[in-house]
Structure formats: structure tokens, C-alpha cells
Amino acid sequence: MIPAMYRFDRVTWLAVAIVLVAVSLWAPRSSASASDPLTPIEDIYAAMVIQNLQSDGPNYVTGDVPVFTYDIVNKSGQSLKVPKVQLNPSFSDNLVGVTQHWIERLGPDNTIPSIPPIVTRDPQGRYAAGGRVIQSPSKVPPSFALSLSRMLGGTSGFPAGDYRYYVEYKELSADGGEVIQSESLVITFEVATPTPSPTPCPLAQIPTPNGCVPQPVGGLSLESGLRALPVETAQTSNSLWTIMVGSAGVASLLALGGAAWYAKRRRWSS
What we know:
Number of strands: 15
Mean pLDDT: 81
CATH topology of the domain at 41-190: Immunoglobulin-like
Order of helices and strands: HHEEEEEEEEEEEEEEEH
Structural class: alpha+beta
Helix content: 25-40%
CATH architecture of the domain at 41-190: Sandwich
CATH superfamily of the domain at 41-190: Immunoglobulins
Number of helices: 3
Strand content: 25-35%
Distance between the termini: 176 Å
Low-confidence stretches: 27-34, 231-237
Shape: elongated
Largest sheet: 6 strands, mixed
CATH class of the domain at 41-190: Mainly Beta
């Protein structure tokens, strides 16, 4: 017989059963969580690769702003659980590395005079063209691609010729900053040809697609119009003089008629 102190009523047994069921349901989740730890950063570096590097060119005119696009892809075949990195007191995120960009002028002279000396240049002669940390989701599934883009500005003074643009995938600085992978492509710059100013036409001529031609005047060439001008001027002056003389004659006749009518009226009145 069970001692009275160990006897439980039905409510107590029901509570114990509920606790046991809850523990059995929670245990598998706990083990699954324990089997899904953060992926070591070395494995992340080994899994992520640069793919699909391309430009919107490849031919440009100096002053253009080329745009480069590429993907950082998980090629490991496994999901990656990316740790959160505290870069500075005000920024932390899930990071899988760094991309660094370079531009190199190809040929015997690899200098780009328009790039100021303050811009970093490596021993190969490449000019630094910007970089960034690579932010990612906390979990990166297999074949997942992080699509990135970069613009290359300040090309107004680039000499004409071929250039190679580089994208490097690197470790974070805290992990050593070593280059893991490098991809590149070639682009071409041409110097913009200035549009020549049209040659001024001589006096009394106008520009046309076929060159300078005499300016038309009243359906005639300007030369013909100029030859006719003295005749027209003389005729216009004679016409004005005739009108003035005619107007004066009419005024005189009206004055004489008025005087005669006034004199006759006075005789009738007297």
C-alpha cells in the first residue's frame, strides 16, 4: 500500500502528465537548435564566391559613368548561419566579407593623370575605386546570391584606351583582410570629339547644309535685290513727291472754291 503522503489525486496526476508531454515536445527543438550553431567565418569565406561580373558598356566616352554589377554567391551547397559583427560602436550586422574595387589603365603608360595623388595606388599600378562590407541575411541558403553594384565616376580626364576593372572579395580587416578571390573585365574609353563650330559666312550670305549661299530677298538673290534697290528708291521718292504735289493742288482748289462761295453769299445777303 502506498503511504498517504505519496498519494495523488487525479488533478495532480493530470498536471504531471502535462509537464511530461511539454518536456518531450521541447526536447527535440532544443537539440535541433544546438545542432545549428553559427558557421565559422573561415567556412563562410570558403563558401562565398564572385560571379557574373559585368558592365553596362563595354565602350565609353570620357566623362561617362560606367556601372558594374556582380553577385556574391553561396556555392557550398549548405546553409550558412552568419554571425553578427560589431564594426564600430554604432554599427553591427551580419557580414560575410569585403569587396574592394580597382581601375587599371592598360598599355605602356599606366598613369591616369586626372586621378589625384591622394587616391591609393597599389604596386601593380592600379587605382583604388572604392570598397564596401558585404551585408547578408542571418541565414544564407545554398546558391543564394547577394547582388551588388558599383559606379566608376571621375572619368572626364581619362586618356583614350583600354582599362581593366577589378573586384576583389576579401576577409574582414579583423580577420586579416586577405584577398580570397579576384575577378576583372576590360572596358574602353574614347575621348569625346568636340563638335566643330560652323564657319562664319561672309556678309550678305547665310549658312546651309551645303555651305554659304546668298541670302534671298523678295524671291531674288541679295545681289539682284541690291542692283534693283536704287531704282526702287527713285521710284518711291517720285511717287511720294507726286502725292504731295497733288494734295497741295486739291487743297488750293478747295480754298479758292470756299472763298468764291463766301463772296457770293455776302452779295446775296446785301
